[in-house]
Design brief:
Elements: E1 4-9, E2 12-17, H1 18-34, H2 41-58, E3 65-66, H3 68-78, H4 81-84, H5 89-93, H6 95-100, H7 126-134, H8 138-153, H9 164-175, H10 182-188, H11 205-214, H12 216-243, H13 250-265, H14 270-279, H15 282-307, H16 317-349
Parallel strand pairs: 2-3
Antiparallel strand pairs: 1-2
Helix pairs in contact: 1-3, 7-8, 8-9, 11-12, 12-15, 14-16, 15-16
Length: about 350
């Protein structure tokens, strides 16, 4: 059984084996020694400690004891801390002089790369990515896109300028990889890392659409469309139910029309009589009423689900309504087939 230590590293608490703790403490002391003359030493050391903590969290689960092989693997991945400083040779020669000057500024050891910041996104994270890259508030970038969109909407100049901001955003969204992994997020913010291979840079349309739909802006647009189509479907459904009120009177109207035709032009031929019997009977219009009624109830159900952003119950009423509607349609087709089969000999004879 090995002895363990409880430590806090990079804002995280870990339980670590004693020999691994000694190894880690020695490594961090080497880091401090390597950056002892650097004005940005405390910032760099804190950042590397955070990096070590991230790697430990990636390779452990809560309650797991950090072992010596894991610390050695992390040291191998991070490498020589001096290489992460990315100092120019000329800067290194002047480090001592700069550190002694009271007005000396911290060296710029950060080297940011352009990624989409999906953690702070509204849609795809393009604007927030530019904000991180240039070190400005992403709201300013978003305002630029909005101004371009409104300018095109107002018709400034000639041509489809309304699409400039939209097309530009889509192109940047496709071209800029998303910062998904911890390595990419550190690289986006210019934090040092020696990992050369980054996963997830390829543009995956399905993944991007899912991410956009889950973003705050995506959820807002989705809600607007849900309400819009919910109102349309509700209007169609209620209109269909109200229209169904007049269906029972249709057979009587057709019968009166056929009677008037017979009085004026004489008896109907076989084909006209077949049409009059089918479309003038209550069975046909009763089936039509059932089909329309079930369909409209299903449409109203879907409209309510969209309007109030509800989730379908476990017993799936929408699916039940759809199956009932299909059954009613097949019953209608079967009934018509029987009517045609019964009248076929008479129609052929005529």
């Amino acid at each position: 059984m090995k002895n363990t230590e409880n430590i806090s590293l990079g804002g995280y608490a870990f339980t670590i084996e004693t020999d691994a703790y000694v190894e880690l403490e020695t490594y961090i002391n080497e880091i401090r020694s390597g950056f002892s003359c650097d004005p940005s030493a405390e910032e760099i050391i804190a950042d590397i400690e955070e990096r070590i903590a991230e790697l430990i969290k990636e390779q452990t689960v809560p309650g797991m004891v950090v072992s010596l092989p894991l610390i050695q693997e992390i040291k191998r991945r991070i490498g020589n801390p001096k290489e992460l400083a990315q100092d120019d040779p000329d800067e290194e020669e002047n480090t001592a002089e700069e550190s002694q000057s009271p007005k000396a500024e911290k060296k710029t050891w950060k080297n940011r790369r352009l990624y989409r910041d999906i953690d702070s996104r509204v849609f795809g994270g393009v604007c927030s990515g530019f904000g991180v890259y240039f070190g400005i508030d992403s709201v300013i970038i978003r305002l630029i896109f909005i101004i371009l969109f409104i300018g095109g909407l107002l018709g400034l100049g000639e041509g489809p300028y309304i699409f400039i901001s939209i097309i530009a955003y889509i192109c940047l969204w496709i071209a800029m990889p998303a910062a998904r992994t911890s390595e990419q997020k550190r690289e986006m913010r210019g934090r040092p890392t020696d990992l050369r291979d980054y996963k997830g840079k390829d543009f995956d349309f399905d993944k991007e659409m899912k991410e956009v739909s889950q973003s705050p802006g995506g959820r807002t647009v989705k809600r607007i469309f849900s309400v819009f189509f919910g109102i349309i479907f509700l209007t169609i459904g209620l209109g269909g139910l109200l229209g169904g009120i007049f269906i029972p009177s249709v057979p009587e109207i057709i019968s009166n029309d056929m009677a008037d035709h017979i009085m004026r032009w004489g008896p109907l031929d076989a084909e006209d009589q077949f049409v009059a019997d089918v479309f003038g009977g209550t069975t046909f219009w009763g089936l039509v009423l059932v089909i329309i009624g079930i369909g409209c109830i299903g449409i109203i159900y879907g409209a309510i689900m969209l309007l109030f952003d509800l989730k379908s119950p476990s017993w799936r009423p929408g699916l039940i309504l759809f199956i009932a509607w299909l059954i009613s349609v097949f019953v209608m087709i079967g009934w018509l087939a029987v009517q045609v089969a019964d009248a076929l000999p008479e129609l052929i004879a005529s």
